[in-house]
Give the backbone structure.
Amino acid sequence: MEKTQSTLDELDFAILSCLQKDGRMSFTEIAEHLNVSVGTARTRLNRLIEDGVISIIGRVDPDKVGFKAYAHVAVYIRPATLKEQVAQTISKMPEVSFLASTSGDYDLEVDVMCPTNNDLVEFINEISTIEGIYQTKTTLYFKVYKYAQPDLNLLK
């Protein structure tokens, strides 16, 4: 059974908050911080992982590891019946860090990270050949001021 926000309790959110601050925090540290047993912390965190609520990953700073071209690409699709097919194709591309269906002027919003501007041009040229895409508009991000996970306190 997939765990949803409504089935997460206060302890689950507290564990998630601890890991957002320090993804390497040990079960012992989580337990001490939340005043629960190590077994409780371990059991809860393992369940959150199994339920797909959280994944433990190493998050890198794109700029510091060599991604110098970061952009937002608005994708326009015709006919609209190809939107899902186009989205599935784009989602498999390694340069894509975010992809969403949108309302409004364009159909898909794509955030892309590439090593260089030339790589970004190649990416744009490549997606422009996908059946159904008739237009793209690219906005370069000159400087990213915030790149973060959602603040769980907003759900309280």
User: Anything to note?
Assistant: The radius of gyration is 20 Å. Residues 96 and 112 are 5 Å apart (CA to CA). Residues 62-141 form a domain with the Alpha-Beta Plaits fold (CATH 3.30.70.920). The mean pLDDT is 92.
